[in-house]
Automatic annotation (TrEMBL):
Keyword Membrane among record annotations: yes
InterPro entries in the record: Phos_transporter
Protein name: Phosphate transporter
Main location: membrane
GO CC, alphabetical: membrane
Any one Gene Ontology molecular-function term assigned to this protein's record: phosphate transmembrane transporter activity
């Protein structure tokens, strides 16, 4: 290294803080369905996910290179710009965690970086082709591809297991869920941990500590992997509750199909260097699995709130980052003011979260608001495409009141089993 200034040290620490929030924000991606179906105990699940996130961080640097070499023009980007980008990303992560919404940490980081770069050097500082092909298009395609794959996999799973013994089948799928959850955690490490590696590498290049076009140093890879693993172990219990219970109620077969589909999409994207949102992929897969089982219910009120958060992530993080960059232009005192604001805001959000504590003891038992929401038009239409799979008929039985218009007023009330 040629130099390592104070501002560069602040940027590295802030980047690792973002990586930590990324870890607990995205724990639900790998373990929500495994916890909700009872395949693993909550603390065991997050510990397993943390270890595999750390391992995944060492498997590839393609996504890190997309961030550090492709998204924004390295020339003219100061460390203060990257610090401002991280402020926008961290605050958005914490706000969405507070309300239990599985938004994209990846797009919060992208939005922050874009907003700060544009505020500092103009729109020309952003490489539009990379933004469209490796960020925006995957953001749209990932949940659709994962959702369709999970829907088809769920239906195939029920079809193939129609003659299997119910208890033995459930036990086998729980084991499959554990394996597929581990694969999602590994995939998350190969994708999300690398985004922080890319940001730190970009900061080191901007600060003159690394030559342009350098790959992330080993210490950057290790520190980013450890930060995301620690955040994962602490568990983002609020978002785990939303993903595991708020979107749909999953059986082991559906959990296995959802996690396997999501992991496949994430690993393929990491190999291609796409800055994919694992949250989008897993959420799409969970909804697809919910639609894949006859009688399954996707709670569209929760899904709608989630979609709104997805749409707001990039512009909201970009706006906060742009404002932070504007304040940082004032010099050292401006940077210090932004740092104080970040710490104070983070502490305030944490204090608010203590009013209703969600942890490993109540993440499964607590009912998500709106959990009794009816299936709705979309779910009903999707579920009616195929007859119910054999072996689950008992689960699909419903009791409805007999038509009031045809009932004898003197006769006792009757019910009809469908």
């Amino acid at each position: 290294m040629e130099s390592f200034s104070l501002i560069l040290a602040i940027v590295v620490v802030t980047a690792l803080a973002f990586d930590f929030t990324n870890g607990f924000h995205d724990t639900a991606n790998a373990m929500a369905t495994t916890i909700s179906t009872g395949a693993l105990k909550p603390k065991v699940a997050v510990a397993m996910s943390a270890v595999l996130n750390l391992v995944g961080a060492f498997l590839s640097v393609e996504v890190a290179n997309t961030i550090s070499k492709g998204l924004v023009d390295e020339t003219g980007i100061r460390p203060e710009v990257i610090f401002a980008a991280l402020v926008g990303a961290i605050l958005w992560n914490l706000l969405t965690w507070l309300v239990g919404l599985p938004s994209s940490s990846s797009h919060a980081l992208m939005g922050g970086l874009i907003g700060a770069a544009v505020a500092s050097a103009g729109i020309g500082a952003v490489n539009g082709d990379v933004l469209v092909t490796k960020v925006l298009l995957p953001a749209i395609a990932a949940p659709i591809v994962a959702g369709v794959a999970a829907l088809l996999a769920t239906r195939m799973t029920y079809s193939l297991g129609r003659k299997a013994d119910g208890k033995a089948s459930a036990k086998g799928y729980r084991a499959g869920q554990i394996a597929s959850a581990g694969l999602v955690s590994l995939a998350h490490g190969t994708n999300d941990a690398q985004k922080t590696m890319g940001i730190i590498t970009l900061a080191l290049i901007a600060g003159g500590s690394l030559a342009p076009d350098s790959d992330p140093p080993v210490w950057v890879i290790l520190s980013a992997g450890l930060a995301i693993a620690l955040g994962t172990y602490l568990g983002g219990w609020r978002i785990i509750r939303t993903m595991g219970r708020g979107l749909t109620d999953l059986q082991p077969q559906q959990g296995f199909a959802a996690q396997t589909s999501a992991a496949t999409v994430i690993l393929a994207s990491s190999h291609l260097g796409f800055s994919l949102s694992t949250t989008h992929s897993v959420s799409g897969a969970v909804m697809g699995a919910g639609l894949g089982r006859k009688g399954g219910v996707v709670r569209w009120s929760t899904a709608t709130r989630m979609f709104v958060a997805w749409g707001l992530t990039l512009p909201a993080a970009a706006l906060v980052a742009a404002l932070a960059e504007w304040v940082c232009r004032a010099g050292d005192w401006g940077t210090a003011l932004v740092a104080v604001f970040l710490v104070a805001s983070s502490f305030a959000i944490w204090r608010i979260s203590r009013r209703e504590v969600v942890d490993h003891t109540n993440v499964v038992d607590t009912e998500e608001p709106g959990s009794d929401e009816p299936a709705g038009v979309v779910t009903t239409a999707m579920a009616a495409v195929s007859p119910p799979p054999a072996g689950v008929t008992e689960d699909l039985a419903a009791t409805v009141p007999a038509p009031a218009a045809t009932a004898d007023p003197k006769a006792p009330s009757a019910t009809t089993t469908v």
